[in-house]
Description:
Elements: E1 6-8, E2 11-13, E3 17-19, H1 29-37, E4 41-45, H2 51-65, E5 69-75, H3 81-90, E6 95-99, H4 105-113, E7 117-121, H5 124-133, E8 138-141, E9 147-148, H6 155-165, E10 170-173, H7 179-187, E11 192-195, H8 197-200, H9 209-217, E12 223-227, E13 233-237, H10 240-246, H11 269-278, E14 286-287, H12 303-318
Parallel strand pairs: 3-11, 4-5, 5-6, 6-7, 7-8, 8-10, 10-11
Antiparallel strand pairs: 1-2, 9-13, 12-13, 13-14
Bound molecules: flavin mononucleotide.
Amino acid sequence: MKLPELKIANFTAKVPIIQGGMAIRISTGELAGAVAAAGGIGVIGASGMTFEELASEIRLARAKAKGGIIGINIMFAAREFWGIVKTAIKEKIDLVFVGAGFSRDIFKVGQENNTPIVPIVSSARLAKTSDKLGAAAIVVEGTEAGGHLGTDRSIKEILPEVRRATSLPVVAAGGITNGQDIVDLLKLGANGVQIATRFVLSTECNAALPYKKRYQEATQDDVVKISSPVGLPGRALKTAFVEKLLRKDAPQPIGCDFCLKNCSLEYCIIQALINSQHGDIDNGIVFSGANVWKIKDRSIKPAAEIIKELVKEAEEVTA
Ligand SMILES: Cc1cc2nc3c(=O)[nH]c(=O)nc-3n(C[C@H](O)[C@H](O)[C@H](O)COP(=O)(O)O)c2cc1C
């Protein structure tokens, strides 16, 4: 069976796959553009970018997208949240995804500028609130996701509750590694899926090679939960730095620029994410979804091939 298209506001993605935004330059214009060109929705992780950088990444993504759909993802926890949103709107971004926290005001700004807003939530309660406030769609993320986590419940538990709570398009996220996972979530009521971890092993992902190698070698035991100074738990792979965090022995931040609205200052998560993105994973955090070790083929290949494989697997399951 052919996978359904994913409709969000006036946009229709031929392939119902959103590439999840990955902050601190892991998903930039290159990856977002490639995913959009392949029929999915490509998302630039805007948290940590300067406004000029974001504008230039959006233009790059557009140039690569062949008319496909491009979004940005911004963490509500970021101090520059509104500046990033305004920059993206000025660049005529198609969709704005908001993760790591919940903003009520963003929906009004979206409506005023005719920009669809898609919140990332982990409960039926917040899905319902988002629907009332004017969301264009809902991404519901389970505990299997990478990065900051809003729940310790599985996506398969939360998704049916969210499906009952709203008639908006619902996109399921967390732990998807193959076509069977996609089909399972569509059967539970999702209109599409959001996938991030699988796309780290793409040619276009902007992480340095040691980061991708960590993904290639990861076993189930390497996936851990850490505490983030943002005030949420985060999911990451073991590195020397992460081991220090787990022992509560993290280095104190040096030269803080107060980039987060609320930060415990326990350690600098942004510096740790920058280090790993540059390839210094011993001094960094490598965010990852819970099921990285289940990815069968962990070679690095173009995002378009990853999408083609996922679609083929899903269609074979439903044949
Ligand atoms: C490396 C990495 C960075 C991420 N950064 C962000 C982010 O900046 N904002 C956000 O809302 N979600 C972020 N996420 C979550 C993803 O967008 C996505 O919803 C989730 O990881 C889906 O689960 P999967 O990785 O198992 O496919 C990140 C995930 C990873 C793996």
